[in-house]
């Protein structure tokens, strides 16, 4: 450790030498200067811990030297030494910054005592500054950590008023610090959570336990609020609180308020809600699919026999017209079954790349012909991207939305249709429940009566309807939801009572332009020949399908299980040209039977038939060599066309 450096400034050489000798005996290192200019020169070359400075010197006096030295080092200690000390000179020197003064002549002991006191104080000052610097650095670090924490950190006093909030209040909620200090905690709490807030901040409440966790909705300000997106107006917060107990005396502490940390869990809550909704929809969808399967088998019998009987009467007869009416009712029932299957997300999709503007124009034109009290406005993106969809299912979505809009405007009104290209980034993807990428956004808005938030939360539930009994099935919007989910899209609604509703749905898109579609020709009945193996566990379906096949000219061998079908093929008694195989059967499923039949005869033609079209299974079977599928209920024309297409393919080969 180096000895303290002391500079002695006096124009009398003898005094400088004597003081230097005394200081050196005490272990200090001393240097003498005989004028103010020389002192300043030394100080510019070296820094000293202490300066002993004579006030009265020729040329530059001690006061001027002090000012120069402090300009070079404002922390140096200066002790004034003079033979002409007065109260005024001492005060002047102290005002400039002198630490102390000595009056000539002085005793050796007084000099050493004054120097030691001064240097000790210098060390204390330096230590204090170091501690203060460390404390300031620690406070800055703490402040940085608190203000840059992703959580909201705050302190409430005994009355539940804010005494501290970090910067996250402004970033997350929009509240400025100065707007909250002194305000009650309830200022930021949603009205439905005020009762919980009161219990939390009530001075008379039981003592709070450390780390107590609760959940609140905090308000956001300065943001447009919509009922559709609750996160626009509120944030879900997971709040942990701890009591602040500060010493009131040496023996006890007093409750002074709460320290709290609030974590924004809005995204987590939204994802949990989406998961619950998806699970609910999946469960209801499974039920709906099962109902549709049994319903389609019943309709299969009705439509099949009606088709058979109708073929025996001329079109002009009353019998033919009555049977045609049965066909219409069966069609209505089949449409309801398709809605159930669409909601269950199990329907087979015949997809193609199309321009949705074409469907929008065509559907709006068709709907507008029958609803003269509705004005339809269209604002369609000129260069709309192409989408890969099942055209029939998206037509159904649009018609469901149009009908829903029309029913919301009993006295007439306006439907506004928009199409636009949009890119969903990572942030928007989480909010919408979609994968990031390119989408086409379609909006169908109306000027109708609108909806309450409670109704909006249930509109996509199957069989939920606000109409009177007998006026609606409650399947329209549920079907819309299921179809769009099966297309990897989604639908949202924004509505307020008296301000109409806007349904917005997104479908994955490709950055390409697509031309228009052309309509398909109506199927005709085509007779054929050959032996058909009919496999179905429903007795009624077997009977009616057998009659239909025989009427078309085919020989039929009917069995009720996959095991019987395998036996019929391996027996070799009959040459089987084609197998119509039900997909859903007990014991051995259609898929299992298909694989065993293919193993026995790889070349045999197989068509899958089902009233419950599980898309994944049928696609897997098609990839393994299945020749086609036909969905129940079907009439003779549809059946004949499908059989002719498969059997003619074999003849060409």
Briefly say what this structure is.
The protein has 653 residues and is of the alpha/beta class.
Low-confidence stretches: 224-231, 468-474
The helix-and-strand class reads alpha/beta
Radius of gyration: 46 Å
Tell me the overall shape: elongated
Strand percent estimate: 15-25%
Beta-strand segment tally: 22
Q: Mean pLDDT, rounded to whole units?
A: 81
Which range best describes the helical content: under 10%, 10-25%, 25-40%, 40-55%, 55-70% or over 70%?
A: 40-55%
End-to-end separation in angstroms reads: 104 Å
Main sheet specs: 7 strands, mixed
Individual helix count: 20
What can you see in these coordinates?
This protein is 44% helix and 23% strand. It is of the alpha/beta class. α2 (36-45) packs parallel to α3 (62-72), α9 packs across α16 and α12 (391-407) packs antiparallel against α15 (476-486). It is elongated.
Notable features of this structure?
single chain, 653 residues, alpha/beta, seven-stranded mixed beta sheet, five-stranded parallel beta sheet, 20 helices, 44% helix, 23% strand
């Amino acid at each position: 450790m180096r000895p303290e450096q002391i500079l002695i400034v006096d124009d009398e050489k003898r005094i400088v030498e004597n003081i230097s000798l005394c200081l050196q005996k005490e272990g200090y290192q001393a240097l003498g200067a005989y004028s103010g200019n020389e002192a300043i020169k030394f100080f510019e070359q070296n820094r000293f811990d202490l300066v002993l400075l004579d006030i009265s010197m020729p040329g530059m006096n001690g006061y001027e030297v002090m000012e120069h030295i402090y300009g070079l080092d404002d922390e140096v200690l200066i002790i004034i030494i003079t033979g002409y000390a007065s109260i005024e000179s001492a005060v002047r020197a102290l005002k400039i910054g002198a630490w102390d003064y000595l009056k000539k002549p002085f005793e050796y002991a007084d000099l050493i005592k004054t120097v030691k006191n001064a240097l000790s104080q210098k060390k204390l000052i330096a230590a204090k500054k170091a501690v203060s610097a460390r404390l300031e650095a620690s406070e800055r670090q703490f402040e940085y950590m608190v203000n840059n924490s992703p959580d909201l950190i705050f302190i409430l006093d005994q009355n539940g008023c804010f005494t501290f909030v970090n910067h996250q209040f402004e970033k997350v909620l929009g509240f400025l610090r100065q707007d909250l200090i002194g305000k009650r905690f309830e200022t930021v709490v949603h009205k439905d959570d005020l009762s919980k807030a009161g219990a939390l901040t009530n001075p008379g409440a039981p003592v709070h336990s450390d780390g107590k966790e609760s959940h609140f909705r905090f308000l956001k300000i300065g943001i447009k609020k919509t009922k559709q997106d609750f996160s626009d107006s509120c944030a879900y917060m997971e709040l942990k609180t701890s009591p602040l107990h500060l010493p009131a005396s040496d023996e006890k502490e007093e409750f002074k308020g709460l320290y709290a940390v609030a974590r924004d869990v809005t995204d987590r809550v939204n994802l949990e809600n989406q998961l619950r909704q998806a699970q609910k929809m999946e469960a209801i969808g499974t039920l709906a699919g099962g109902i549709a399967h049994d319903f389609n088998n019943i309709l299969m019998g009705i439509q099949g026999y009606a088709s058979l009987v109708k073929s025996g009467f001329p079109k002009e007869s009353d019998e033919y017209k009555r049977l045609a009416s049965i066909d219409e009712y069966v069609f209505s029932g089949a449409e309801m079954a398709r809605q159930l299957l669409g909601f269950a997300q199990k329907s087979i999709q015949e997809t193609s790349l199309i321009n949705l503007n074409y469907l929008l124009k065509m559907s709006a034109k068709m709907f507008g012909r029958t609803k003269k009290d509705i004005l339809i406005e269209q604002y369609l993106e000129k260069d709309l991207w192409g989408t890969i969809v099942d055209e029939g299912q998206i037509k159904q979505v649009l018609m469901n939305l149009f009908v829903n809009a029309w029913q919301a405007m009993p006295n007439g009104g306006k439907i506004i249709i928009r199409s636009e290209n949009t890119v969903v980034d990572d942030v928007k993807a989480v909010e919408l429940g979609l994968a990031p990428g390119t989408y086409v956004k379609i909006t169908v808005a109306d000027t109708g009566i609108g909806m309450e938030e409670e109704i909006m939360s249930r509109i996509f539930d199957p069989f939920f309807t606000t109409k009177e009994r007998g006026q609606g099935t409650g399947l329209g919007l549920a079907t819309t939801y299921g179809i769009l989910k099966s297309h990897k899209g989604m639908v949202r609604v924004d509505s307020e009572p008296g301000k109409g509703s806007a349904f917005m749905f997104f479908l994955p898109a490709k950055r390409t332009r697509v031309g228009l579609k052309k309509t398909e020709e109506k199927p005709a009945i085509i007779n054929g020949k050959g032996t058909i193996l009919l496999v179905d566990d429903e007795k009624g379906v077997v009977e009616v399908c057998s009659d239909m096949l025989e009427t078309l000219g085919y020989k039929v061998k009917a069995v009720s299980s996959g095991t019987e079908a395998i036996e019929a093929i391996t027996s070799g008694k009959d040459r089987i040209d084609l197998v119509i195989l039900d997909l859903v059967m007990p014991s051995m499923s259609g898929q299992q039977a298909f694989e065993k039949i293919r193993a026995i005869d790889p070349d045999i033609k197989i068509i899958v038939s089902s009233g419950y079209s599980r898309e994944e299974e049928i696609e897997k079977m098609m990839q393994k060599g299945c020749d086609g599928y036909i969905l129940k209920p079907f009439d003779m024309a549809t059946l004949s066309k499908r059989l002719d297409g498969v059997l003619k393919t074999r003849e060409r080969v």
